[in-house]
Design a protein that fits this description.
With about 725 residues, the chain is mainly beta. The chain contains three helices and 56 strands. Strand 29 and strand 30 form a beta hairpin. The longest helix is centred in the N-terminal third of the chain and has 12 residues. The chain is globular.
Length: about 725
């Protein structure tokens, strides 16, 4: 990844690249390699296996010539190495495949002598064929055998330049060499399915709550799924890693005459650590007319219909630290009370009681009008683009996953006027992932054409889970948790249309991972505006449950991605916590263009929490705390700047916009630390921010400005925000 403050690889048009003349390129494309055995006729089952897959290389001539450019299907982009021997370029096919041929389309800088190698693990290589008299142009070579990884291993260059490939295409059979994996199946012991006639629901809810109420870093994971119907007299108290959801398409299909409750008795009435839980797809008739949902980060409230009021504070009105509501209808008033910050999207509410620091609404009927800085409301009439999280339903005596349709300029719920729009996918088209399943098996399932449904549990992976097929749904139940071992990424998504990631937690392992979640390889550039990838209720954690390290938690390289409610957290408490113990320099880095974040919570990173390099990015609601545990001013010194901004837009960016962004500091190890600013952005007409604030919590550290050198400093111990209404 690029170093802090340095731009990542940027895409350029083909005209900006060093390339042969049009006539020379045409000749190169028509040329063939005479020193290679004749290619056998392609069989009917042969297909292009490499396009859009993850590619890596020994070196790059420059950042604009990434390895991914050789497998992107675009003959106007290329990979190019440094000017030395040997060099290699390899592609990961995602699963072991039967290989038939490779086509190498060289730029003017070609390989005179090279090998095509295959590997099952990316470590042990075998030579499939060798070329000793290459003359550039297009080389087509016959392959035999199997392999998951295929490499061009360059031994001698044909020119004084490096090795440069417009495209490296590997062909073979799409049939996996292993047995076919089944779709569907049971959901395992930690998914508790009930219908209105099933006895013991309250007792099971109570038992799980007793186990999970204070198990903040425990291994228990649970999902309660309620089939359509009416449930009387329930109080579903939700503890950590517990999800409750109705299995109807619409919330009113599944009604609880009772409550779904989150309170903070376990923490002496303080709700600031009520993380990692969720409620979805239910209608509630609260017993006393008001439901209590006293949560903080990583707790989603989706597709809920509360036929009464909703109280967001714990009993006794102790502290609470922010949450998220989407696609929900609250008939009565929402009592914000002690909630410091909150985001409500595409919903309908009967009213809102007050503001504390940062309350943001988009596409919400009944929301208060923008009044920032006092009261601190920021309201957008619509959400520019939204697509709701996929969810399980029970229909025709079987499970299906409902995948909602994209909306533009959305306002109100998807279900207000009847059945929401979307696709129903039978569970038989999902591989049901259970604890003990390996990443290799998950990757095979995706390559077979299956989606992934994670049942509640903790999953260790020794290689990245690779989502290389357009339209793949990856859905977690009960906060299923993925831990990468040996410094690998937990998940990588190819630069393809319409991938949907939802409902899981990534927990960093003790060996540093350069990145935990990567959306698109570096250099991605395909247009996904019609069918964007979505990341929803996907949370990332470094430390807390044990030692963990990651250089960058989430990297978004693809264009048009929607990040809808995420909490990316370097732990400030729990096990394995310390300035170097759970080192994590960067939270979220956005390189792709036209990326939209709705509900972005990113906290406590050693350097930048959010960095944005892509054009036309937008963020609606951002919540941040700087790292508590900086030992002194020198530890966060950023050149001549005091501290790293919570949210930085790179100087190369021309267009960017944000609404309702807040950053707070609590430097309790050294309260004398000062941050020059919470936000950093270029001063350009197309870069705009609305409703910005910084807060010093009790005077533990201070901000000199809000954004750049604009905004009054925080001061004293009174925890009063410093605000900027519009920037510039």
């Amino acid at each position: 990844m690029p170093s802090a403050g340095s731009p990542p690889a940027r895409r350029r048009s083909a005209s900006a690249l060093r390339r042969p003349t049009a006539g020379a390129l045409a000749a190169a494309l028509a040329g063939t390699l005479l020193a290679v055995l004749p290619t056998t006729a392609a069989q009917a089952a042969e297909t292009l296996l490499s396009q859009g897959r993850t590619a890596t290389a020994s070196t790059l001539e420059g950042a604009v010539f990434p390895a991914s450019a050789a497998v992107d299907g675009d003959f106007g982009t290329r990979w190019s190495s440094q000017w030395a021997d040997p060099q290699w370029l390899q592609v990961d096919l995602g699963a072991s495949r039967q290989l038939s041929r490779a086509v190498l389309t060289w730029e003017a800088a070609y390989g005179r002598s090279y090998e095509i190698q295959a590997s099952d693990d990316g470590t042990s290589w075998r030579t499939v064929t060798a070329v000793t008299a290459g003359d550039g142009g297009t080389d087509e070579v016959t392959l035999s055998g199997t392999g998951r990884y295929v490499r061009m291993n360059g031994l001698a260059r044909g020119t004084g330049y490096g090795y440069s490939l417009w495209e490296f295409q590997v062909y073979g059979s799409t049939d996996s060499t292993g047995p076919q994996l089944p779709g569907g199946g049971d959901l395992g012991p930690n998914v508790h399915v009930f219908d209105p006639s099933t006895p013991g629901l309250q007792a099971k809810l109570d038992a799980v709550f007793k186990e999970q109420e204070s198990a903040q870093f425990g291994a228990g994971r649970h999902a309660f799924l309620l089939k359509p119907g009416t449930y009387n007299g329930l109080n579903a108290q939700l503890g950590f890693y517990t999800q409750i959801a109705g299995l109807g398409v619409r919330p009113d299909d599944t009604t609880i005459n009772g409550d779904v409750t989150v309170d903070a008795g376990w923490f002496n009435g303080n709700a600031t650590q009520n993380f990692w839980r969720g409620a979805e797809g239910l209608a509630l008739n609260p017993v006393n007319g008001t439901d209590r949902w006293a949560v903080s980060q990583a707790s989603s409230f989706r597709r809920m219909h509360v036929k009464g009021g909703l109280n967001l504070a714990p009993n006794g009105y102790g502290w609470a630290s922010g949450g998220y509501i989407a696609d929900s209808k609250i008939d009565g008033q929402i009592g914000n009370y002690s909630q410091q910050q909150w985001y409500t999207r595409d919903s309908s509410i009967g009213g809102w009681s007050n503001s504390v620091w940062n309350q943001v609404f988009s596409g919400t009927e009944g929301a208060p009008a923008t009044a920032f800085p006092e009261p601190r409301y920021t309201t957008l009439d619509t959400t520019p683009i939204s697509r709701e999280k996929p969810y399980l339903i029970w229909e025709d005596n079987q499970y299906k996953v409902f995948s909602p349709a994209k909306r533009t300029n959305a306002r109100g719920t998807t279900w207000a006027n009847g059945t929401p729009q979307g696709e129903k996918i039978p569970l038989t088209q999902f591989y049901v992932v259970k604890p003990g399943t390996t990443a290799a098996t998950m990757n095979q399932a995706v390559q077979q054409g299956l989606h992934l449904l994670f049942t509640p549990g903790v999953y260790h992976v020794d290689r990245p889970i690779e989502i290389n097929r357009a339209g793949t749904v990856v859905l977690g139940l009960g906060l299923a948790t993925i831990i990468p071992d040996n410094g690998v990424a937990a998940m990588k998504v190819a630069d393809v249309d319409g991938v949907r990631l939802a409902g899981f937690l990534v927990d960093a392992g003790p060996v540093n991972s350069p990145v935990l979640l990567e959306i698109g390889p570096q250099g991605s550039g395909a247009d996904h505006a019609a069918n964007p990838t979505t990341v929803q209720d996907v949370y990332i954690r470094i430390g807390g449950a044990g030692p963990g390290k990651a250089t960058t938690s989430m990297v978004v390289n693809s264009d048009d991605v929607i990040v809808d409610h995420t909490w990316v957290w370097r732990a400030d408490h729990g096990e394995g916590v310390g300035w170097e113990t759970n080192r994590a320099d960067y939270g979220v880095r956005v390189n792709g263009d036209d990326v939209l974040a709705t509900g972005l919570f990113v906290e406590h990173f050693n350097k930048y929490d959010v960095e944005w390099y892509g054009e036309r990015g937008r963020t609606i609601f951002f919540q941040n705390e700087k790292a508590y545990d900086a030992p002194n001013q020198a530890a966060i010194q950023n050149g001549t700047t005091k501290g790293y901004a919570a949210y930085r837009v790179d100087d190369s960016v021309n267009t960017h916009e944000g609404w309702g962004l807040g950053s707070y500091c609590y430097y309790n190890v050294d309260p004398t630390i000062r941050q020059d600013h919470g936000f950093k952005a270029p001063v350009k007409p197309g870069v705009r921010f609305h409703s910005l604030l910084t807060v010093s919590l009790g005077g533990n550290g201070q901000f000199n400005h809000v954004i750049n050198d604009v905004g009054a400093p925080t001061e004293g111990t009174s925890t009063i925000p410093s605000t900027v209404v519009h920037f510039p």
